[in-house]
Amino acid sequence: QVQLVESGGGLVQAGGSLSVSCAASGRAFRNYAMGWFRQAPGKEREFVAGISAAGATIYYADSVKGRFTISRDNAKNTVYLQMNSLKPEDTAVYYCAAGVFPRWYVGPGYGMDSWGKGTLVTVSS
Predict the structure, then answer these.
(1) Where are the beta strands (DSSP E) in 40-118?
(2) In the prediction, which pLDDT does 66 show?
(3) How far is Cα 79 from Cα 8, in angstroms, rounded to an integer?
(4) Residue 22 and residue 96: Cα distance in Å, rounded?
(5) 123, HSE (Cβ side, Cα atoms, 13 Å)
(6) Cβ atoms 70, 60 nearer than 8 A
(7) 73-114: per-residue pLDDT in tens?
(8) Whether the bond into 88 is cis, omega within 30 of 0
(9) Closest Cα to residue 19, out of 5, 11, 9?
């Protein structure tokens, strides 16, 4: 079991940038693939980005590829999502999740084992 806490959400203008972080508790962090997911108002949760346990493999949703960057620092038990060129449609609650065998494109659970409570990102137009 890993506890996850997201931070860094807020209000940004379209075209701007924002970085959100996910801090994990527990020594098993390095054994988990980590992912970012988001849920916009009135919509279902969707996959945003994922990174393997060692950080060697990275996945992005088509909607964010080229704009968002996921990274992790296993020494700090933290995963990050750098969001650039933000659009109003990026507005959502962003969730961090951990899983041993993630299914990145299979919602709503995506095979993840633990979820944070989310951090709200609002992009104004």
Answers:
(1) 46-51, 58-60, 68-73, 78-83, 92-99, 114-115
(2) 98
(3) 12
(4) 6
(5) 19
(6) yes
(7) 999 999 999 999 999 999 999 999 999 999 999 999 999 999
(8) no
(9) 9
Q: State pLDDT tens for residues 6-55.
A: 999 999 999 999 999 999 998 789 999 999 999 999 999 999 999 999 99
The two structure tokens encoding residue 106? 């299979």
Residue 110 in tokens: 């995506």
- The predicted pLDDT at position 26 comes to 80
Q: Any idea which residue has 């962090």 for tokens?
A: 29
Mean pLDDT confidence for 110-119: 97
CB-based contacts of 118: which residues, under 8 Å, 6+ apart? 6, 39, 93, 94, 95
Token pair in block for residue 60:
């992005």
